[in-house]
Specification:
Blueprint (H helix, E strand, L loop, with lengths): L5 H6 L7 H9 L5 E3 L2 H29 L6 H8 L6 H28 L6 H11 L11 H7 L10 E3 L8 H22 L13 H29 L3 H21 L5 H28 L1
Antiparallel strand pairs: 1-2
Length: about 290
């Protein structure tokens, strides 16, 4: 889909329509993708900053002209109660406080919005495909929305943010969700997976896929240990056993990183425990064989 021209945007600013879109983004916060409007927010900060500096300067100039010095707690209290003798000073001071409140609120809002996570490719493409899904009550992207979200395969607008980051942490789940699930669903999954009635669209949710990869990880973890022990039991040569322990430890550490999302310290801890189990098994079986 070609990007609309500025003339078409001003003439036909059609927004996204469809209750399913609001229900989807209201429940899947990773797909609640919206622009930050960083340029406009920067303009607002500069405008409020300049205005606050000007108000502060006017207040200081008025203080110099009237010969006012630093406030004491008693004079500040009287001005807060409206009992001060200089009504112009009071008005300028209150005006400066109002601008300071506006600037502080804008600064805090912009800081929070700037820290919102960026949308990942999976949820971005899934949202684009959902919005362009024709024939089930969902209209395609038009007008301003087409410029905000773009079309399939387009680079993600750096101004976009999402309300919640993707919860997936291990590389195995990321590979499955970002790389493998689409060809799997296209060739196999669409024939066996029922349509999602809640969102009026075929497909699997990321949480469902993550549960599947977690189950696969639970199967892989004991298989690695069981297979290592079985091979060590079958092999009698000590040099071959040492080589098997090294290879099994390498496979286990890689699986701990890619399937479990372990950090560096956890990988060392898990691998050391795995090596300890294998070494104890080798020592026990070697002693038994020697006695025999």
């Amino acid at each position: 889909m070609d990007s609309p021209s500025p003339e078409s945007l001003s003439a036909h600013p059609q927004p996204i329509n469809g209750d399913s879109f609001f229900e989807r983004t209201g429940k899947i916060y990773e797909q609640a993708i919206h622009p930050r409007f960083g340029y406009e927010r920067a303009q607002r900060r500069i405008y409020l900053q300049a205005g606050l500096v000007q108000k502060s300067k006017e207040l200081k100039d008025h203080g110099r002209q009237t010969g006012r010095g630093m406030w004491t707690p008693s004079t500040a209290h009287s001005h807060c109660l409206g009992e001060g003798e200089d009504s112009i000073f009071d008005r300028k001071f209150q005006d400066m406080i109002d601008w300071l409140d506006k600037y502080s609120c804008a600064l805090l809002q912009d800081s929070q919005i700037a820290n919102l996570p960026e949308p990942n490719k999976f949820y971005m493409e899934d949202l684009r495909g959902f919005l362009n899904h024709i024939g089930k009550g969902i209209i395609g992207l038009t007008g301003v929305d087409a410029c905000i979200y773009g079309d399939k395969g387009d680079p993600i607008n750096p101004d976009l943010c999402t309300l919640k980051d993707c919860p997936i942490v291990d590389s195995f789940s990321k590979i499955v969700i970002f790389k493998l699930i689409r060809p799997f669903f296209w060739y196999i999954g669409r024939h066996i997976v029922k349509p999602n009635k809640r969102y009026q669209m075929d497909g699997l949710e990321a949480d469902t896929i993550f549960s599947m990869t977690l189950t696969i990880t639970c199967i892989i973890a004991p298989l690695i240990q069981a297979a290592s022990i079985a091979i060590l039991y079958a092999v009698k040569s000590m040099s071959a056993r040492l080589a098997i322990i090294a290879a099994a430890g390498l496979v286990f550490s890689l699986c701990s990183r890619w399937c479990g999302g372990s950090n560096r310290s956890e990988i060392f801890t898990h691998t050391a425990a795995f090596f300890a189990v294998l070494v104890v098994f080798v020592g026990t079986t070697s002693g038994s064989n020697a006695c025999e």
